[in-house]
Write a structure and sequence with these properties.
The chain is α/β, with parallel strands linked by helices and about 375 residues long. It has helices at about 20-30, 55-65, 70-75, 95-105, 110-125, 135-145, 155-160, 225-235, 245-250, 280-285, 295-310, 315-345, 350-360, 365-375; strands at about 10-15, 35-40, 50-55, 75, 80-85, 90-95, 110, 130, 145-150, 170-180, 190-195, 195-205, 210-215, 255-265, 270-275, 275-280. The chain is about 40% helix and about 25% strand. It is globular. The protein binds flavin-adenine dinucleotide.
């Protein structure tokens, strides 16, 4: 059973990992009366990454966690999302207010650090133990009613509990990310598609943009330092349309991030084993092409707390979580991979056909297509069974 609060105290959960998934799950469980301890192997709480797009489904999940208004306050409400070619030609432009009307929540750009800090504040200071790497799944599972494995792409918990699960593989392209001062108030997000290269700009705070770039290259061939990485980016993207060259000039090499993109080759067949459950990238690390990894993690947190709220045995509740979340994650995982193939691995013929298809797709059709990714809504609260 989900242990009811009683003389022995509330049911207890251990969360492994204090990224977006772990913190969001801790918030959700604490709101429904669980005693939660989060173990984070890093010495301090920190958010790796620069910025994030939060689509309406992610904003609905944040609302369900009681954090939607706080995040809206720290984020930029995006007014449009455009796709361009390197010479500046627009392939498509989606009015984000139409997206917001359709889905009942805005499209936000936010600094990853701001989102992480809001989640950490909501968990509360005593609940997170930094410098605490969990290595023994069996021992934590024996001590707690629930173990939440939120330890990311290279999840140790997944390896321990799901020995046959697929491992992360290189997706064939690399990314650079940075926060850059724009000097001008911008509210439109854009992505520019070249030949196996992309450049994206997402406003995340007043006068600050999250910029990202991708290129199809062998894994591991990184430059020796940020200055050399930035020089390489200028060679690749310096001739692209404004404001890309100016943004690269404004970037700080000391904070430029470079990561080769790895993703799980497939989502595990089940996201739970007994009373242990996978959330976030540990469950379903996908390629970043949909901007939905953090959104899925927030959804996981909401759904997990929901299935545990009605008093069913924990393992039974986790089976319901697993069935609904696996289907959702597997669909987005596959869609994101297809988009990766179209943008990072296309030959010139496919590339022209792709661009023509994007240009000719009416906005109404693009809006309807967003339902598959952004149409998720939190489950309605159920009353607790006796
Ligand atoms: C280039 C790029 C761009 C992206 N853009 C977007 C976007 O725009 N929108 C979006 O929604 N998503 C985006 N994502 C995806 C998103 O960043 C991830 O899906 C999300 O951050 C995953 O969070 P997580 O908490 O599951 O994992 P992580 O952030 O990896 O957190 C895992 C935590 O677990 C800790 N840990 C690991 N092992 C242990 C252990 N044994 N014991 C204790 N602690 C441990 C780690 O230190 C870490 O803090 C992007 C990803 C990439 C790579």
């Amino acid at each position: 059973m989900t242990p009811p609060p009683g003389p022995a105290g509330p049911p207890s959960a251990t969360v492994v990992g204090a990224g977006i998934a772990g913190l969001a799950t801790a918030v959700a469980l604490r709101r429904s009366g669980w005693s939660v301890t989060v173990h984070e192997r890093a010495a301090t709480l920190r958010a790796l990454g620069a910025g994030l797009v939060l689509a309406p489904n992610a904003v609905h999940a944040l609302d369900a966690l009681g954090l939607g208004d706080a995040v809206r306050e720290h984020a930029v409400t995006l007014t449009a999302s455009a796709l361009r070619r390197p010479d500046g030609r627009t392939l498509s432009r989606l009015d984000a207010s139409r997206l917001a009307r359709r889905h009942g929540a805005p499209l936000l750009g936010v600094e990853r650090g701001a989102l992480h800090a809001l989640l950490a504040d909501a968990v509360g200071p005593g609940a997170v133990r930094c410098g605490s790497a969990v290595t023994d799944l069996a021992s934590v599972a024996a001590q707690h009613d629930l173990v939440v494995a939120a330890d990311g792409l290279r999840s140790h918990m997944r390896t321990a509990g799901w020995p046959g699960a697929a491992a992360p593989t290189y997706s064939g392209y690399t990314t650079w990310r940075a926060l850059v001062r724009t000097g001008a108030p911008v509210t439109e997000a854009s992505e520019t598609w070249g030949r196996r290269e992309r450049f994206g700009v997402v406003p995340v705070a007043e006068g600050v943009a999250y910029v990202f770039a991708t290129a199809t290259v062998p894994a591991g061939r990184h430059a020796p330092d940020g200055a050399a990485e930035l020089a390489g980016l200028r060679r690749r993207f310096g001739g692209w349309h404004a404001p890309i060259p100016a943004l690269l000039d404004a970037a700080d090499p000391a904070t430029l991030l470079r990561h080769d993109v790895h993703a799980l080759s497939r989502v595990p067949a089940s996201l739970h084993r007994g009373t242990t459950v996978l959330v976030g990238d540990a469950a379903h690390a996908l390629e970043p092409n949909l901007g939905q990894g953090a959104g899925l993690a927030l959804e996981d947190a909401v759904v997990l707390a929901h299935v545990l709220a009605d008093g069913a045995p924990v393992a039974q509740a986790l089976a319901r979580y697993s069935a609904s979340r696996r289907a959702r994650a597997a669909e987005l995982h596959a869609t994101s991979r297809r988009l990766g193939r179209l943008t990072q691995h296309a030959n010139p013929v496919v590339e022209s056909a792709r661009d023509a298809a994007v240009r000719l797709t009416p906005a109404a059709v693009a809006l309807r297509a967003s339902d598959r990714t952004m149409g998720w809504r939190p489950p309605r609260p159920t009353s607790r069974r006796g």
